[in-house]
Amino acid sequence: MYRNHRAKYLLLKAACSLLTVGVIYTASAREGMWLPPNLKLRADDLKNAGLRIPVEKIYNTNGTGLNNAVVLFGKGCTGEIISPKGLVLTNHHCGYGTVQGLSSVQNDYFAKGFFAASMSGEIPCPGLTVTFIRRMENVTDKILHGIAEGIPESRRDSLVESRIRTWEKAYKHTTGYDASIKPYYSGNQFWMSLSETYRDVRLVGFPPNGIGSFGGDTDNWMWPRHTGDFSLFRVYAGSNNKPADYAKGNRPYQAKQFFSLNVGGYKEGDFTMVYGFPGTTQQYLSGAQVRQVENVLNPLRVTVRTKKLAILDRNMSQSRDVFIKYTSKRAGVANAWKKWQGEMKGVKEHNVTGTKREYESEFSRWAARSAGTGGNTLTEVQIAINASEELAKADEYIKEAVWGIELVQQGAVLEKMRKAFQSAKTNNALRDSLQKIVAQTAGFYKNYDAHTDKEMFAGMMQLYMDNTPLYVPAYYRDMKRMHGNSYSRWADAAFSQTLVSDPEKLKLFASRAELKDEGRILSDPAWQLYSYMTEYRKTDISPKLARYNNDIKRLNRQYMAALMQKEGPDNFYPDANLTLRLAYGKVRGLDPDGPEGYSYQTDLEGVMRKNNPNVEEFRVPEYLQKLHAKKDYGRWAVNGTVPVAFIADNHTSGGNSGSPVLNAKGELIGTNFDRVWEGTMSDIDFNPKVCRNISLDIRYTLFTIEKFGNAKWLLNEMRIVK
């Protein structure tokens, strides 16, 4: 947060915790997700914290900065280049969805793992991308020039969006790079990122779940942690080392910048940096907004996902085929489910709402003395939050429950088909269009089980309709009544009558359809569920909610502008928005009352203590057990074992998964993969007493590659130093 407020904020929390833990945490913990081009403003602080390289080495635009070795992996993770041949290191869970698409019961990479024996054995990953950030630039003047603050929010948004599109095209034309412009500081600033996205990415290494997701949901967000959460991919390029679609003739990307791997270890108090793409934080929410998250939205989300997980677990436990189809989807549901619970716990225990309101009282007194600073903004935010709360609850139930039913989602496919009926002139043209639409659904049906989705339908519909009776489309109420108020009977009917619960039924319809058959789409339960809900949100919820949200957005921007005026614009960082950021802190232990006591590091002995062959998430692979029994650790042995994970007080968020964790010289010592449960509230409020990021020690990664995966050839292309 902002420096003066943060110092007061942390001292207040320290005073509250003094009697219970006997330790005062001051503002020395370096909260923040800092913009790389602005690091020169923090050069002194970075140096005092322990940095031993110039900040220009971390980021520059001449091609020699470490920004050229950090990549956006896929659409929401971070990765890093660790060899001159385009080798990418990221998290196991970041590669999970891609590997699910490559797996089958016959090639079960989750159970057996995968390590290529050579480059020729690396597996293409359709649809997976890796993006490099070549340059970032403040373009606020270009976007906001001449836009008066008092104009209607919809008009302002329209002008901003139009200018963003214009400047993105202009930058792409003049530089040859892709350009993306995003808002920062609640829309008070705009920054442009120039990037290159590589489309030929191949799987190189993926440990089995018994290593890569060891501990499963039980250990997720927890410390101590013993998960070997990594996977390896390789970027391939076309001519001139530039992005290209997959082709056999492509060659490994030739990286001018890549990370050295430092295997000399670390100790508590050592300087660390996390470089990556944090996804979303809400550090500057008002007390009223935090209260809504804590007491309304998060409890709702947890309730819905608890039921989702029960349905998924029951079906996945009964069939390995269903397990493979839904394991990645389930992980996505469970991850946020557990995080939200920790967030609520932290916000409550550390009185975040009360502390924010105390600062807001101080802010209001300052605003009253300063003309034109929007002193009433916080009161107006609270009024808008209270007035829109029931609408917000209903919309959240729709997003979490109704859109959580895959059959309803597939109504969008039928809507595409309906439009094809309207535009086609002949039966042959119609069938050609329909078959193209069906072909695009192949990936969906590879990972779909109608029986599981039918159970989900009954469970989710009950949660939605029972909890938001005033915000339900008439069609939904009619269908429930028609089926005797039985959600399971309604589900049976919908799944038996729709085209989209069975891919073969959908293919058959597409191959035989005639122009006169449009009625079959209009009468399909999935299309009706999708269409009526889409229309209901469009007319009865979204416009009303948008009016409140636009007011809140405007007020938040005004509040942020006032904060920048009060505290100084360079003293605090913008919320995360999946753009490149640097966080820095120190290796620092935590005592969560776990079996290892106060600790900052775990090791292979802890893995073996948790081994339980009867519980899948704690089942250690047999070959790893053999390596342990023989103490066959090679050069990765440290005091008779292998380090596994460590924690530090870097400020991270979702999107930082897979981020390189660097030492004072910019060398990679680990890979960020999680936060501790006690500190998941860091998306709303960073508390140095409990907020820790969890990282995989690079030595465990290299041990697994060399000893477990028998892929020493990969280590030969890395630069490993002590």
Question: Can you describe this structure?
Answer:
By secondary structure, this protein is an alpha+beta fold. The chain has 3 domains: 320 residues, Thrombin, subunit H, CATH 2.40.10; 68 residues, no CATH class; 265 residues, no CATH class. Helix content is 48%, strand content 14%. It is built from 27 helices and 20 strands. Strands 1, 2, 3, 4, 5, 6, 7, 8, 9, 10 and 11 form an 11-stranded antiparallel sheet that branches. It has a 7-stranded antiparallel sheet with strand order 14-13-17-18-19-16-15. A hairpin with a 3-residue loop joins strand 1 and strand 2. Helix 4 runs antiparallel to helix 11. The longest helix has 43 residues. It starts with a helix and ends with a strand. The N terminus is likely disordered.
List the helices and strands and how they pair.
Layout: H1 3-21, H2 43-49, H3 55-58, E1 70-73, E2 77-81, E3 87-90, H4 92-102, H5 109-112, E4 114-115, E5 123-124, E6 130-138, H6 140-144, H7 153-175, E7 178-184, E8 189-198, E9 200-206, H8 209-212, H9 216-219, E10 231-237, E11 251-252, E12 261-262, E13 271-276, H10 287-316, H11 320-349, H12 352-369, H13 377-402, H14 406-409, H15 411-423, H16 427-439, H17 442-446, H18 450-467, H19 474-482, H20 487-497, H21 503-512, H22 518-522, H23 525-567, E14 581-586, E15 601-603, H24 604-610, H25 622-629, E16 643-648, E17 660-662, E18 668-675, E19 693-697, H26 698-708, H27 712-715, E20 720-721
Parallel strand pairs: 12-20
Antiparallel strand pairs: 1-2, 1-6, 2-3, 3-10, 4-9, 5-9, 6-8, 7-8, 9-10, 10-11, 13-14, 13-17, 15-16, 16-19, 17-18, 18-19
Helix pairs in contact: 4-11, 10-11, 10-12, 10-13, 10-18, 13-18, 13-23, 15-16, 15-23, 16-21, 18-20
